[in-house]
Design a protein that fits this description.
With 335 residues, this protein is α/β, with parallel strands linked by helices. The chain has one domain: Alkaline phosphatase D (PhoD) (Purple Acid Phosphatase, chain A, domain 2). Helix content is 26%, strand content 27%. The chain contains eight helices and 15 strands. Strand 13 (301-309) and strand 14 (312-320) form a beta hairpin. The radius of gyration is 20 Å and the shape is globular. Residues 1-21 form the signal peptide. Residues 32-284 form the PhoD-like phosphatase metallophosphatase domain. Keywords: Signal.
Length: 335
């Protein structure tokens, strides 16, 4: 029996409305610090948010080896972890960068002799195509653009290891600032400047392994390289990209930090999401004058949900845990 015409029209209208709603929304999830030998309870929770993109922010495995066979075995174990394997089948795009433990050595910097070898293994894990430019360049930085209705969101992932100058720690194992040290290297700086100057995106997510904005804690951070941190902020002022959002990992905590940058229409928000498998539960507080909201010391991931409304772009930024728990959430218009 044929369905009545009004039912067919109603079904068609519902399909078109659903498709329109999907086009006007974009969900990007991200996280870091994932040890493949520990329980990984979050993949199903993240999948339930129906992300269009998953971003690895480093320490995607704890490789910590110069032996490529060891690193490959750990990457393979993560790829075959049942919940993550299912997650990969559900998420349209999985992208990422690295930090020190998947780079191959804790606190690894530009002097690490196996970085070119390990770059290929990291890109294998991210299932980068064999002919990808990332396989021919030094460093695994990359950029991607996604649509939200008539708007664009650009994701710029930096490599904070391949070119990083050396940091030293004192007798108390506290990192000492390197006043003239660099993080990105001149080739990556030139690439980043071009990505920002030539961009017509309405929002720009810039991500790397270590934190960009916080300055007060004693661990790895851009603030240990004050000249490089200032160069990054000056580049944002010079190129004034729309809607800057920073994402970072490494710290085994989650938090949001906010800083007004001259030349930008709105303060820059940084979301640190670190602790997919082993957060620093003993860290119940540390100084950060730029923090907005709480310090999260439980397993969590970060989420951006973009949506276009009447030619304006909005984003809800949140830190989330198991069973749908929302530790903190902010909604803002992207300017």
């Amino acid at each position: 029996m044929k369905k009545p015409l009004f039912l067919l029209l109603a079904a068609s209208l519902l399909t078109n409305c659903t498709a329109e709603a999907q086009k006007n929304a974009l969900t990007i999830a991200f996280g870091s610090c994932n040890r493949h030998t520990l329980p990984q309870p979050l993949w199903n929770d993240i999948a339930a948010q129906k992300p269009d993109v998953w971003v690895w922010l480093g320490d995607n495995i704890y490789g910590d080896s110069d032996d490529p066979a060891v690193l490959k075995a750990k990457y393979d174990a993560q790829l075959n972890q049942p919940d993550y394997a299912q997650f990969r089948r559900q998420v349209p795009a999985i992208i990422g960068t690295w930090d020190d433990h998947d780079y191959g050595r804790n606190d690894g910097d530009k002097t690490y002799p196996f970085k070119a070898q390990n770059q290929q293994l990291a890109l294998d894990f991210l299932q980068e195509p064999p002919d990808s430019p990332r396989r021919r360049q030094e460093g695994i930085y990359a950029a991607y653009t996604y649509a939200v209705g008539g708007k664009k969101v650009k994701v710029i992932l930096l490599d904070d290891r391949y070119f990083q100058d050396t940091l030293y720690r004192n007798a108390n194992q506290v990192y000492q600032p390197n006043p003239t040290g660099d993080v990105l290297g001149e080739a990556q700086w030139a690439w980043l400047a071009q990505q920002l100057r030539a961009s017509d995106a309405d929002a720009h997510i810039i991500g790397c392994g270590i934190q960009f904005l916080p300055q007060q804690h004693r661990f790895e951070k851009w603030a240990n390289f004050p000249a490089a941190r200032q160069r990054l902020l000056a580049l944002l002022t010079e190129t004034h990209p729309k809607g800057v959002l920073l994402i970072s990992g490494d710290r085994h905590i989650g938090e949001m930090s906010r800083l007004a940058v001259p030349g930008l229409a709105a303060p820059v928000l940084e979301v640190t999401s670190s602790g997919l498998t082993h957060p620093a539960t003993n860290n119940t507080g540390e100084p950060n004058d730029l923090r907005v909201g709480p310090l999260v010391n439980q397993k969590h991931y970060g989420l951006f949900r973009f949506r276009q409304k009447r030619q304006r772009l909005f984003v809800t930024a949140s830190l989330r845990g198991e069973n749908g728990q929302v530790f903190y959430e902010q909604e803002l218009e992207v300017k």
